[in-house]
Amino acid sequence: SVLFSKQHRHLMKGVDRANSVAWNPHKMLVAGLQCSALLLKDTTNLLKQCHSANATYLFQQDKFYDVNLDVGDKSVQCSRKVDCLKLWLMWKAVGSDGLEERVDKAFIHVRYLVEQMKKREGFHLLGEPEFVNVCFWYIPPSLRGKEGTADYQDRLAKVAPVIKERMMKQGTMMVGYQPLGNRVNFFRVIVFSPLVSQRDLDFFLNEIERLGNDL
């Protein structure tokens, strides 16, 4: 999706070396679910070779038109919905400039969110974001300055699940968390909705603090 952005399309440099690329416009471009495309260099009708069931009651080979148009025999689902129509309609509605604006706005929001996190005690980034995924720990006051203690990691691992439980029960937000390797549970927020404002991001940070301050 960043290919729509003149400012950020460099992130896809080298993609021409890939044999296949999966693209999900329902993510960054916020097309209706589901909207996915698989782009292949292969020109040997690979999808049909992999997925075709040769169902003669559906895909007769002696039709008067080019049977390659029967794309259903190339798909695992056979009768899947027309994903590309969602992308086409959205593209017609907002244009290439509108899609570029969505991509650029996502990066602006991420920069703002990270800048605000760095100004607040208790937010600890796992690393500088390279895209629009922001991974962070919230360190409640009771754990600050105690990174060297034996039970620090165990206690930190319980913070995100409790905050998630509270936000769900109070109906204020929905934000995911996960562990990764030797890194205990951390929040992973992805900012790309064109409806999100900086005011929403401020609320997000305030809410994390409110829900986790007593842990």
Automatic annotation (TrEMBL):
What is the superkingdom listed in this entry's lineage? Eukaryota
Q: What cofactor does its activity depend on? A: pyridoxal 5'-phosphate
Which Gene3D superfamilies does the annotation name?
A: 3.90.1150.170, Type I PLP-dependent aspartate aminotransferase-like (Major domain)
The entry lists its GO molecular-function terms as: pyridoxal phosphate binding; sulfinoalanine decarboxylase activity
A cellular component term from Gene Ontology for this protein is: cytoplasm
Q: Which InterPro entries match?
A: PyrdxlP-dep_de-COase, PyrdxlP-dep_Trfase, PyrdxlP-dep_Trfase_major, Pyridoxal-P_BS
GO BP term, pick one: taurine biosynthetic process
Q: Which Pfam families match?
A: Pyridoxal_deC
The family annotation for this protein states: Belongs to the group II decarboxylase family.
Query: Which proteins does it associate with, and in what oligomeric form?
Result: Homodimer.
Annotated protein name in UniProt: Cysteine sulfinic acid decarboxylase
